[in-house]
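Anyone able to model this chain together with adenosine-5-diphosphoribose?
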Amino acid sequence: MRRSKISVIGAGNVGATCAHWAAVKELGDVVLFDIVEGMPQGKALDLAEAGPVEGFDGAFVGTNDYKDTKGSDVIVITSGMPRKPGMTREDLFEANKKIITQVVTVCVEHSPDAYIIMVTNPLDTMTYLAKHISKFPKQRVMGQAGVLDAARFRTFVSMELGVSVEDVQALVMGGHGDTMVPLPRYCTVSGIPLQELMPGDRIQALIDRTRDGGAEIVKLLKTGSAYYAPAASVIQMVEAIVRDKKRILPCSAYLEGEYGLDGIYFGVPCRLGKDGVEKVVELALNEEERELVRVSAAAVGKSIASLKL
Ligand code: APR
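re: yes, here you go
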């Protein structure tokens, strides 16, 4: 049986770390593409040489030639500028719009049947752009944001309560930005609602920290943005698709009426499997949650409109 082929465009911090997690999980053969000569080749070879030590098999190719991505099953797009301290994700709009337009155009020529997972920020807008350019069906173009945002919330809850991260489940909806919508009502610790374990003011503090989670890391790193948790989140989505796991994961998905939203990419719980975004799960949100979704959708809609497509 043929192994899955996973191409990662942009072999920088997020891209190379995606290749690392994909290799360790033996999700398939990995192609690392970048415009910088020698860098993806060096990283791919280095990763292959970790195989004997860690005990993973697979082919790892680094390249500056899109031909090597031909026939990919999954394409992860991380190419673009990361944030520097003081920048919002929206500040990356112009630079990354040009890069994503060019990258998606060439990628889909070589891999017309691929699933595209977007990582480049501003995430929901760049995912919309990728769908527009690829002309792929909505099930095959999605963005990674919610798994990461939920992972941050889960981390903070586990730190606060002194419990294993494995036992903390959480859901974050909305745009991947300042208006994201963490949903504490849907956060549980081994099935126990979070509200029974933590006072409301502490929950709110953790929500605020989650919203600023990306900026907190940018401020510490100073030269770029987060990559371990973003890459791990991407690879959870890749795994759900190539292993047809039917995971319910929050993803940036194209909405056509769900949650009363139409024609935008927005973070919502989805079922991910061999057919990509197989289903959007609609939750019965309360009035307060619906209002947060409205505010977030308006911000995402404004950013998408400025693509002027
Ligand atoms: N084609 C392919 N690769 C490109 C292109 C292009 N046109 N333009 C830039 N790149 C590559 C760069 O050479 C670099 O290696 O994209 C890579 C980006 O890597 P980093 O600068 O390390 O950025 P990273 O932290 O990986 O973030 C990438 O993900 O989380 C988001 O906001 C983040 O949009 C950013 C993206």
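The chain is about 40% helix and 20% strand.
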